[in-house]
Amino acid sequence: MIEAILERCAGIDVGKKFVVVCVMTGGARDEPHTQIKKFGTIVSELQRLSEWLVAEGCTHAVMESTGSYWKPVFNLLEAHVRVILANAADVQNRRGHKTDPNDSRWLAHLLRHGMIRPSFIPPLAIRELRDLTRRRRQLIGENSRERNRVQKVLEDANIKLVSSGTRKSS
Question: One GO MF term, please (predicted)?
Answer without folding.
Answer: transposase activity
